[in-house]
Each structure stands twice: as structure tokens, then as C-alpha cells.
From TrEMBL:
Species per Swiss-Prot/TrEMBL record: Volvox africanus
InterPro entries on file: CRA_dom, CTLH/CRA, CTLH_C, LisH, Ubq-SigPath_Reg
Domain CTLH as annotated: residue spans: 65-122
Domain of life: Eukaryota
A Pfam family hit: CTLH
Protein name in the entry: CTLH domain-containing protein
Length: 232
């Protein structure tokens, strides 16, 4: 029988697992830094200020600069792509100049907003003048442009097979991409560490699943340990 088969897996009961976890000590200062990193990266300025006062954990960056970044994000999430792009250029014009994929996605979002508003002629003109030249030498851009323009073929674009482009999640996706680019230009981390640690936790559990039956975390939101099931 192979090492990863059920019959050869080690069974670790709940009490033994909890005892092992109790021996792992994580300094509170490290946890505070992790929380502050999340607040700063995601742009929760007021929460970061409050947490700094309560915990004494320094944010490590100028919180006023975060306010500028969040203004860009709010504009984009509200559908005002032009205002977001103008604000980014005020912060650092090289961000859009040096990242053609990001620039295309912002222009694509502008097209989506025109379609959302029902400005068909303006949408077609914008696509031809601003997006088509970008897509001429890039197959990926061309496919995304064709998919976006295809929204015009549907009377109710939100309920169409391409309706995901009209969803708020599309704005969020573009906003996150722009947010990451701004962070990178400011020599900051593009993603908070906390989600990465949770992904690492799930990966580690997947590896351990092949070797043992143990109390695992199925829901990272609650972090509740689920007792191991008996091997058949």
C-alpha cells in the first residue's frame, strides 16, 4: 500500500493536535504587524490610525499617501475611470506609461462604462479610436476587446453570457490591478500578507492530507478545527 493511501495514514486525535498547537507561540507584536500590513495595503486609513494608537504598531508608511491611493480606487469603483486615471497621473505618470496591460484594462473599463450608460455610438467610437490601436499587436487585448464590444449585441447586456463584464466585480478587479500598480510604484507590497498566509495554510493542509488524518480547518473565516474522520 502506498504511503498516501488511507490505510497507512497516521491518525492524530483532537486532544493531541490541540496540545501541539498550544506549544506554538506567536509574538503579539508579529500579529499586530500582520494586521497593520493588511490595513495599510488595503487602504483602511482610519482603521490603521486607530490601530496604531491602540497597539503602538507603526504603519511603516505615510498614511496620507494611502488617502490619495484610496481616492483613485473609489473613483474607479464608482465607474469614473477618467478621474481615476487623472489622479494616478498626478501621483506618478510613469505608472500607466510603463504598464500597457493595465492601461488597456482601464480603457476597457471606460468602454464598459459607456456601454452601461447606453451610449452605443460613443462606445463604438471610443473602442475604434482608443482600444483598437492597442489591440492590433496584442492577441490577448484583441480577444478582450472583441468580448467587450460584443456586449452591444445584447439588449440586456447584464443578463447576457458576457454579463460578468458589467458586474461590480469587474470594476473591483480593475481597481485592484491599479491599486497593486500604485503600491509597486511606491515600493510597497502589492498584496497584504494575511491572505497569502491563509493560502499557505490551505496548501500545507493539502500536503498533510496525503499523510495523516488530523483536525483540519475547513473554514478559514472561523478557523474552527474539524475532528478527523476515521479511515475506512
Amino acid at each position: 500500500m502506498g504511503r498516501g493511501e488511507a490505510g497507512s495514514k497516521k491518525n492524530i486525535p483532537m486532544d493531541v493536535w490541540e496540545q501541539k498547537l498550544a506549544t506554538v507561540k506567536v509574538p503579539k507584536a508579529d500579529l499586530n504587524k500582520l494586521i497593520m500590513n493588511f490595513l495599510v495595503t488595503e487602504g483602511y486609513v482610519e482603521a490603521a490610525r486607530m490601530f496604531e494608537k491602540e497597539s503602538g504598531t507603526a504603519p511603516g508608511v505615510n498614511l496620507d499617501a494611502i488617502t490619495d491611493r484610496m481616492e483613485v480606487r473609489r473613483a474607479l469603483q464608482g465607474g469614473d475611470v477618467e478621474a481615476a486615471m487623472e489622479r494616478v497621473n498626478d501621483l506618478d505618470p510613469e505608472i500607466l506609461e510603463s504598464q500597457p496591460k493595465l492601461f488597456f484594462h482601464l480603457q476597457q473599463q471606460r468602454l464598459i462604462e459607456l456601454i452601461r450608460a447606453g451610449n452605443v455610438e460613443s462606445a463604438l467610437d471610443f473602442a475604434q479610436q482608443n482600444l483598437a490601436p492597442l489591440a492590433e499587436e496584442n492577441v490577448e487585448f484583441l480577444e478582450e476587446l472583441e468580448r467587450t464590444v460584443a456586449l452591444l449585441a445584447f439588449e440586456d447586456s447584464k443578463s447576457s453570457p458576457l454579463g460578468d463584464l458589467m458586474d461590480v466585480a469587474q470594476r473591483q478587479k480593475t481597481a485592484s490591478e491599479l491599486n497593486a500598480a500604485i503600491l509597486q510604484s511606491q515600493a510597497q507590497e502589492k498584496e497584504p500578507r494575511l491572505p497569502l498566509l491563509l493560502k499557505l495554510l490551505l496548501w500545507a493542509q493539502a500536503q498533510l492530507d496525503e499523510r495523516a488524518m488530523y483536525p483540519r480547518i475547513n473554514d478559514v473565516a472561523t478557523a474552527q478545527l474539524v475532528p478527523p474522520t476515521k479511515a475506512e
